[in-house]
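okkk here we go again. third time trying to get the flavin-adenine dinucleotide bound version out, last two times i messed up the smiles copy paste (missing a bracket lol). double checked this time i swear
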Amino acid sequence: MADRRGIRNLPHMTSSAFDSVRCPSWDVLVVGGGVIGSAVAYFLAAAEAQGARGEAGGGGRALRIAVVERDPTYASSSTALSVGGIRQQFSTRENILLSRFTAEFIRRAPELLSVDGEEPELGFVEAGYLFLATESGLPVLRRNHSLQRELGADVAILSPEEVQARFPWMEVGDLAAASLGLRGEGWLDPYSLLQALKGKARALGVAYLSDEVVGMRTRNHRVEAVTLASGDTLPVGLVVNAAGPRAPEVARMAGIRDLPVRPRKRIVYRIHCREALPGCPLVVDPSGVYFRPEGQDFLCGASPPPHRDRDTLDLEMEYEHFHEVVWPVLADRVPAFEAVKLGHSWAGHYAINTVDQNAILGPHPELPNFCLANGFSGHGLQHAPGVGMAIAELILYGEYRTLDLARFSFERFANGELIREENVV
Ligand SMILES: Cc1cc2nc3c(=O)[nH]c(=O)nc-3n(C[C@H](O)[C@H](O)[C@H](O)COP(=O)(O)OP(=O)(O)OC[C@H]3O[C@@H](n4cnc5c(N)ncnc54)[C@H](O)[C@@H]3O)c2cc1C
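finally!!
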């Protein structure tokens, strides 16, 4: 990883960094301005601003930071198409800590992300996640629960009777137990989080370039420059790959062919149900089908079985999955769901890490100034704040300081130190 001095060795920029600026070079160029790229940019710029005020190792000129985004409407980005769920209930230590960081970040977002006195409204609904388990799922539920509690997550195991008492609209006959998040869990508006991070990053001097990275020039195990679709070639100190489901494409531009990330389609169905379900959290059925309220409606879905989960960047809707898999489970679990009307539904992409379904973070070993922030496997929205902060620390200080995410390095694949996440929804 390029260290702070290395990043600062580039020639000085001649104009200030705002969107349409033509800049001779960038110290940090982030490919992809979704929630991950924007979080990295925000935390870098915020740390720089703090440093400039002399609070955190300032000195030297400010870093020139650019984010290149191929689609500023975000129409097909995973962030805008996400369900916005935030939960502490993971099986991997780092994921639990990242979610705890997010819960605190959301709490402080009005203060941290306000621009010109205007506070962002993230629409956080703190209604919890409810993971249901049958007898066979009980050992995993209990194991995860112990780890979550050890790390300070406010989660409770409920008996079927307790589930029934809290949520009388639910069938619990087949259940052995459930795990409910009591604080710091629920869902928010993903687009608002993205815009809040982006708006603050821009206010702190980050340039957002509306363009597409189409190539990279590398020499002596370093990326020297990126080429844009507009024809510009930009010399760079360090590149962050935050291209979401297109991360492997961007990695290939830098000559990296072994990034185990693939785009996989996930469909979100919106349903209307005549009856209200008071206190409904985000419920994850033992089958993998999930649902949560969205205004007067509900959002629901399920990952397809592995043999039907092909690599694709298409966004075409598929309704058979709803009729054959999702709806039958919903109707068994919640009798009120026997009569539902399908509403506006949509497809998006998970960037699946095909090896262990966890993030891949930090420099690629063959290319130390090419930093990965990829493979979030369906839980990247809620981990964006912690990941952004951690990648910013790596870039600025050459080490993780707040959250140790070293186990998410690319090297884990070669070293056989996989960290499989069991709670992928
Ligand atoms: C249906 C669905 C439901 C989900 N639900 C949840 C959830 O409940 N909770 C949760 O935490 N996560 C959820 N996720 C996952 C979450 O949305 C993602 O992990 C997260 O948004 C990833 O953010 P990102 O910035 O990496 O990717 P993206 O949001 O896809 O951003 C990447 C950006 O890179 C840009 N880009 C790509 N290539 C280039 C290039 N060459 N040049 C310039 N720009 C480029 C793209 O246009 C895109 O805007 C869900 C995802 C989907 C699809």
